[in-house]
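Researcher: Here's the sequence for the chain we discussed earlier.
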Amino acid sequence: MGAIGPKNRTSKARRNKRKANWKLTAPSLAKCSKCGALIMPHRVCKECGTYNKRQVVKVEEE
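Model: Thanks. This is the structure I predict for it:
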């Protein structure tokens, strides 16, 4: 019989340290085509409520 699984159990701290280091780059930002605010790509603009040059969400002004 050969060894199939891991020899010792990995602690939660060691596992979480390893899993925490995969996302190191900042999210890419694009400019809104209507108001020019920085937004994440393929998302509705929080400033003016547009997506793909169309009004999608009604934004209340303060």
